[in-house]
From TrEMBL:
It is a multi-pass membrane protein. InterPro entries: MFS (IPR011701), MFS_trans_sf (IPR036259), Proton-linked_MCT (IPR050327). Belongs to the major facilitator superfamily. Monocarboxylate porter (TC 2.A.1.13) family. Its main location: membrane. This is Major facilitator superfamily (MFS) profile domain-containing protein. It comes from Lithohypha guttulata. CDD domains: MFS_MCT_SLC16. The keyword DNA-binding does not apply.
């Protein structure tokens, strides 16, 4: 670490300013008021870039439910069972999240854009490799692990950038960006069934990879971080933040939200098949979930800035749990399942829109990358196993094979809501008005 002496002729003192090596973003210089997020400007371009990133990654991953239905009904890989295919989708999410410490290490060494470019290329290679898969293990490594690693490399560097550009309207901005997974996901979930039917599975995978890679290149070119101003402490894993009680509440909410989320995301389409729906109708169910996601996340972002991020997120988690009990269990025809998919889509994935803003309520902005890295690492386990647990809970008898997975998902969301309720009590009080940073 080098030092630079600056001469001040007014008092003949030589204050020392520490200049850090280029592989970190931390400087021992206090931030000035002008360093605060501008709440606009080029931040709107970054919103568009993150909108594309979320749509081209998570929006497409959400359409795996279409592939899952196809794999389960067409016996593409003989000898494979439902649990095997569930792990393909689960490993997709888990690989994206478990790479968090490695991504942070790369960010310190290379910076934002090179890491995101690496992610885009890895993402594309995963889709191309999946189109040539002949065995289940090849599918797991390509459509699961490789695509997941690419997702992590391109998505994780972008997660904290919006918080660097927005403060007062942070939840609104984050809601708009996360809505990309819903709106762009609509296009892919609606077109995947048609591509499989008309072009075959292999070309469906290739077209998905190529078109999404083009969007990711555009997003990478447009996005800009403010690391030189914010000076985030980007560590692969900072154990010191585990000493904070509120961090544990965020982690609890995170784990149980995703346990419930994965079941709804991947099971709704196949649940429709148990009601007698065909492949096209099951695909429309997933499309309705994405439509609800796109609409809901934008409104949740706006409402969160007004009513409080923790309050709104906790309410949505509770409503998701109640709707599984009251609505999903009783959705026994195409119309009722369509309406449930649309409504629950608005609230069940709020986690992705609010995890960064809520994390910014618990730690300082400079510590946000470290906390998010910890969150993603912890989240890898529920995303990997939750859908497999749900499929294992299915019963092969009676007319309600998904009853236990429905109850399981509902309980997970209610527990998640409980963690946010405790976070609210600890930070502001149960009845006090929530004050966003």
């Amino acid at each position: 670490m080098s030092e630079e002496k600056i001469h001040d002729t007014s008092n003949n003192e030589r204050p020392t300013i520490n200049r850090i090596e280029s592989d970190t973003f931390i400087e021992d210089i206090p931030a000035s008021p002008s360093d605060k997020p501008p709440d606009g400007g080029y931040g709107w371009v970054c919103i568009f870039a993150c909108f594309l990133i979320n749509g081209a990654t998570w929006g497409i991953c959400a359409s795996y439910g279409v592939y899952l239905n196809y794999y389960l009904t067409q016996n593409i890989f003989p000898g494979s069972n439902d649990i095997d295919y569930a792990f393909v989708g689960g490993s997709n999410f888990a690989a994206a999240l478990i790479t968090a410490p490695g991504v942070n290490w790369l960010l310190r060494r290379l910076g934002t854009h090179p890491v995101m470019l690496m992610g885009g290329v890895t993402w594309l290679l995963g889709w191309i490799a999946a189109s040539f898969a002949k065995t289940l293990w090849q599918l797991v490594l390509s459509q699961g692990v490789c695509i997941g690693i690419g997702l992590g490399l391109i998505w994780q560097p972008s997660t904290g950038i919006i918080s660097q550009w927005f403060q007062k309207r942070r939840s609104m901005a984050q809601g708009i960006t996360s809505a990309g997974s819903g709106f762009i996901g609509i296009v892919y979930s609606a077109s995947t069934t048609h591509m499989i039917d008309n072009l075959g599975l292999a070309w469906s995978l290739r077209i998905t990879g190529i078109t999404s890679f083009a969007m990711l290149l555009i997003a990478t070119a447009l996005i800009r971080d403010r690391n030189k101003v914010v000076r985030p402490t980007i560590h692969p894993f900072d154990v010191n933040i585990l000493k904070r009680y509120q961090v544990w509440m965020v982690l609890g909410w995170s784990v149980f939200s995703l346990l419930g989320y994965m079941v709804l995301l991947y099971s709704l389409g196949n649940y429709g098949k148990t009601l007698g729906l065909n492949q096209k109708q099951a695909g429309i169910i997933i499309t309705m979930v994405n439509l609800g996601t796109g609409i809901g996340r934008m409104f949740v972002g706006v409402i969160s800035d007004r009513l409080g991020r923790v309050t709104v997120s906790g309410t949505c988690a509770a409503l998701s749990g109640v709707s599984c009990f009251v609505w999903w269990i009783n959705a026994r025809d195409y119309g009722s399942l369509l309406s449930f998919a649309l409504v629950v889509g608005m609230i069940f994935g709020v986690y992705w829109a609010t995890i960064a803003p809520i994390s910014a309520e618990v730690v300082d902005l400079k510590d946000l990358p470290s906390l998010l890295s910890l969150v993603w690492l912890v989240d890898a386990t529920p995303t990997l196993f939750s859908e497999a647990i749900a499929l294992e809970l299915r019963t092969g008898r009676g007319n309600r094979p998904y009853l236990y997975p429905q109850i399981y998902s509902a309980l997970c969301y209610l527990v998640a809501a409980g963690f946010l309720l405790e976070l609210r009590r600890n930070k502001w009080g149960l009845l006090a008005r929530e004050k966003n940073r």
